[in-house]
Amino acid sequence: MLGRGRSTARWCWRITSLRAGGGVAQAGSVSRVTGNGRWQAGATVKWPNDIYLRGRKCAGILAEARSDFVVVGVGLNVFSAPAAAECDTPAIALGDVVAEAPGREQVLAAVLDGIMREVECCGSGFLGQVRRLREVCYLAGKTIGFNAGGRQHCGTVSGIAEDGSLLVVVDGVEVAYPQAAEIRVIRE
């Protein structure tokens, strides 16, 4: 089993399943917290493991596997987000989009509820996770630049493949990328 994220960017299908489910669970949690219990906030998943709100990153998921267990970590900007000078991705906090910032306990309860909802949905299998991930895919239709296979690429995201890979049209050909790093939106 492989794991990690960001600069090492290695992961495998077992981790992909955790990230897909984790991403859907987190997007739902953020939406519930920011929508006062309703699914109105429009939280989306930037493949494979970042949560966006209003076009800016508000959370991330990191999964690291060992021989017999997996540790999944969730980082969520609740009260404040890093300043633009501190990170390469525009960030936002939950407190930036709601009239009254939720308490940490409320956020934790929403995150755990989102995870449990996704666990209950796991009976539909990995394809069910992929279907739910497609519904909240931040990158769909956007032109992106990214690194895959040690090379820089540019193309338009057409969706998520059944195996969880990112589908990108590069030079007129749709290609499935199971791994990619340094994904950045070039054009909305």
What can you see in these coordinates?
The protein is of the alpha+beta class and 188 residues long. It folds into two domains: 13-135, 2-Layer Sandwich (BirA Bifunctional Protein, domain 2), CATH 3.30.930.10; 143-187, SH3 type barrels, CATH 2.30.30.100. The chain contains three helices and nine strands. The protein has helices at 13-34, 104-121, 125-135; strands at residues 44-46, 50-53, 56-65, 70-76, 143-148, 151-160, 166-170, 173-177, 181-187. Strands 8-7-6-5-9 form a five-stranded antiparallel beta sheet. It has a four-stranded antiparallel beta sheet with strand order 1-2-3-4, with helices on one face. α1 (13-34) crosses α2 (104-121) and α1 packs across α3.
> How many angstroms separate the termini?
35 Å
What's the domain count? 2
Strand content: 25-35%
Count of distinct strands: 9
CATH fold assignment of the largest domain? BirA Bifunctional Protein, domain 2
Overall outline: globular
How many helices in DSSP terms? 3
Unreliable residue runs? 1-5, 8-17, 35-40
If you compute it from the alpha carbons, what radius of gyration comes out, rounded to the nearest whole angstrom?
16 Å
Question: Helix amount, in percent?
Answer: 25-40%
Strand order of the largest sheet: 8-7-6-5-9
Q: How many strands, which pairing sense, and closed or not: the largest β-sheet?
A: 5 strands, antiparallel
- What is the top-level CATH class of the largest domain? Alpha Beta
Tell me the series of helices and strands, N- to C-terminal: HEEEEHHEEEEE
**Mean pLDDT across residues:** 77
Structural class computed from helices and strand pairing? alpha+beta
